[in-house]
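Good morning,

Attaching, inline, the backbone tokens for the sequence recovery test we're adding to the shared suite. The designed sequence is right after.
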């Protein structure tokens, strides 16, 4: 999910149960290209991760670095063309003093409330729209050591967590818009598809 612009600043409020990382810890991965609308990975349901390997550790670092370098609040694995069930989240983008971290094999446990707010996506640059999402979400999953973890978020963090879980199921935020609104975005979507074909 794209870091919100100033129009969304007033909506920033968040909580999280994710463990804090060492203050000195910095991702050691590399920045990878975020694929755009039209790439097949964005419409592919991600497969669960079952084993902690050195390749997975490196990939999770790449995911965090790519998210931070491209100013994202969150980034799903399939946005860098890897269809595994993992995403990175940057709590600092919502004024939560925690290191960026990854969640593996996430599942929504509970939601509460409903709030409409503007949303954007790194794979759909230049497109923003308002849509309703739960105001609170609790998810379960695994941390970067494949240990069970529970994460809670409110408002913008909840929106980001749900946005990234949608990605892992091959769903984009524009899929939540009305059919008439999606038709209005048709020209922009075709431009993004062309950019992706030429990348």
């Amino acid at each position: 999910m794209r870091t919100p612009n100033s129009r969304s600043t007033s909506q920033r409020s968040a909580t999280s149960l994710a463990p804090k990382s060492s203050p000195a810890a910095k991702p050691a991965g590399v920045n990878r290209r975020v694929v755009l609308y039209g790439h097949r990975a964005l419409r592919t349901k991600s497969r669960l991760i079952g084993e902690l390997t050195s390749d997975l550790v490196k990939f999770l670092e790449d995911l965090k670095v790519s998210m931070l370098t491209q100013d994202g609040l969150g980034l799903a694995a399939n946005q860098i063309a890897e269809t595994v069930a993992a995403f990175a989240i940057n709590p600092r983008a919502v004024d939560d003093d925690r290191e960026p971290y990854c969640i593996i094999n996430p599942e929504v446990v509970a939601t509460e409330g409903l709030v409409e707010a503007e949303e954007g996506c790194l794979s759909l640059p230049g497109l923003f729209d308002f849509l309703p999402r739960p105001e609170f979400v609790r998810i379960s999953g695994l941390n970067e050591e494949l240990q069970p973890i529970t994460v809670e978020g409110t408002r913008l963090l909840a929106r980001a967590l749900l946005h990234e879980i949608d990605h892992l199921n091959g769903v984009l935020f524009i899929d939540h818009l009305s059919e008439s609104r999606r038709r209005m975005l048709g020209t922009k979507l075709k431009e993004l598809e062309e950019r992706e074909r030429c990348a």
